[in-house]
Design goal:
12 helices, about 60% helix, Endonuclease III, domain 1, mainly alpha, 2 domains, Endonuclease Iii, domain 2
């Protein structure tokens, strides 16, 4: 039933019976990564505080404006007003330009992130204007393929988590999530992928 990451997932299942139930209901989950580059970061800067549907439309317009792929060179060649006409706010247009400039001048070395620890990679990404914890963690999980990152900042993850592990009123949500997820270490990203998959497949409605 499980993929090549059997041993890691089974370790979590042995520690956490609720997660075991989730895996059994969800079935196989692909451990994919998307090429980590300017396009990935631009896509997630656009997504900040927007619905997926709205963000996808804006990102699609921006890609078309950039010739099909959002690169640092393409963004730097555009005026902020050009970017804004895609539906991007003024602040996000500034963020996109700042991110592109950081990649271009080497302040953000995307290829070099692979050589850094999780903490160092988070620090390097978050140092760039417009890249907060959420964007940095999405990059680390889905572009760098890091195994032990907990995306507590992500609304979809929080929503799904609360369906699986109903949190008691009055408790600090983040601390409770971190406490429960400590059972998954050092594979918290892998566990998060199952939670995302269950959310996307509609499995949590009757969990």
């Amino acid at each position: 039933m499980l993929s090549k990451k059997d041993a890691r997932i089974k370790k979590i299942m042995n520690r956490d019976p609720v997660f075991k139930k989730l895996v059994e209901k969800t079935g196989p989950v692909e451990e994919y990564t998307r090429k980590g580059d300017c396009d990935f970061l631009a896509d997630h800067i656009v997504q900040q505080l927007l619905s997926t549907k709205a963000a996808d439309k804006i990102a699609s317009r921006l890609r078309a404006l950039c010739g099909g792929q959002i690169s640092e060179d393409a963004l730097l060649a555009l005026e902020e007003e050009d970017i804004r006409r895609c539906g991007v706010s003024r602040r996000k247009a500034e963020y996109l330009k700042a991110m592109a400039a950081a990649i271009k001048d080497g302040a953000l070395d995307l290829e070099g992130l692979d050589k850094l620890s999780d903490e160092e990679a988070m620090k390097a990404l978050s140092a760039i204007r417009g890249i907060g914890s959420w964007t940095a963690k999405m990059y680390m999980i889905f572009a760098l393929g890091r195994e032990d990152v907990l995306p507590v900042e992500d609304m979809a993850f929080r929503s799904a988590f609360n369906k699986i592990y109903p949190l008691k009123p009055g408790r600090d949500e983040r601390k409770e999530m971190e406490r429960i997820a400590s059972l998954w270490a050092p594979y918290r990203s892998l566990a998060a992928r199952y939670i995302y998959a269950a959310y996307d497949r509609g499995i949590l409605e009757n969990f």
